[in-house]
Amino acid sequence: MPAQRRRRGALLLCVWSTQAFLAPQAPHTKITLQALDSFMVGRLDDMRGTFDELTARLADPDVLDDPDKMLQISKQRADAEEVVNTYQEYQNLEEELSGATEMFQEADDQEMRELAREEVKELEEKIKDTEERLALLLIPKDPMDEKNVMLEIRAGTGGGEAAIWAGDLVEAYTRYAKTQGWQTRVVDASPGDDGGYRQYTMEVTGQSVYSKLKFESGVHRVQRVPATESQGRVHTSTATLAIMPEVDDVQIKIDPKDISMTTARSGGAGGQNVNKVETACDLMHHPTGIRIFCTQERTQLKNKELAMQLLRSKLFELEQEKQAAEIKEQRLMQVGTGGRSEKIRTYNWKDSRCTDHRLGQNFNLDKVLAGELEPVVAACVAMDEKQKLEQLAKEAMA
Hints:
Layout: H1 3-9, E1 12-15, H2 18-22, E2 32-35, H3 39-57, H4 61-64, H5 67-106, H6 110-137, E3 149-155, H7 160-179, E4 183-191, E5 197-205, H8 209-213, E6 218-224, E7 235-245, E8 259-264, H9 272-276, E9 280-285, E10 290-294, H10 300-325, E11 343-348, E12 353-356, E13 361-364, H11 365-369, H12 374-397
Parallel strand pairs: 6-11
Antiparallel strand pairs: 1-2, 3-5, 3-7, 4-5, 6-7, 8-9, 9-10, 11-12, 12-13
């Protein structure tokens, strides 16, 4: 095979056109390609070498006798397996293409030449698809993507209408979670005077929850005639949404001296135990001023555990925001920061449209509010992948 072809075919970086990566119907849309140097090939070869080493270590008696080490190595190997297998598939296709090209050049019979020509065309398409998959697989994975989350919605500007709007968002994300097969559980809720919620926090658990919901953090603005408006005027109200990945004690250390915890009666429906026994937990984290009042569980112990879990998530979110603020050039998506200062979406009732300002794209308002958020999420995933691929290109040319 000519050296130029092998070098061009080593690996191609996906460069997404604006129209392509914004298409909402699928997270990975058709893309154009631009050749890279051997930087990526070196990364792939290193990954294959590491994969082989991990495979060999699984047969090591010391590893076999240590369940924790066995689990760690197995996970590392599984994480690299798809990349290694796809890279091997790519190299096999390159060898087949070399043979088909040679057959085309040497064939004397016209029919054989046409068959070889068709095979070359087919293999080139397969190689192109495999190159695209390789480029996407090489994108660094967010270590939080598999985490469950605490989803917090707070009414912003707009008084009673803001609380009603926060309630609409609670319904939309609860419905979306259901379409994804996720489970939701209320952690804390403060109803608004005119309906909806001043503040609402729910735990969302399931497969790859954070990988999708992390794009939803920010300010959600609504433009409509509120139910509380008597003269038919359009109001603008907001609600802020934070997505906090659940973290454990290893990731966030909390000094017991920094917190105070008291108990209280939960009140409301739930039977005599709820009303007469102090099952509610009122937690205060003094360094940050974070206060959590948890009443959702029927026992004091479970409410304490839930409150500590939410506190860890909030502290982790603050740490992420601090780190993001130190980065001079933040990516457009601000993935994983949970930042609330940027308006990410406007919901316009008059025109029945939902506009995502990061994407510059409109979506059907009724469908979004009904929980059909997958097209929006897919477009956000595509934009995020584009930005990460561009970063890989910069690293390759550095």
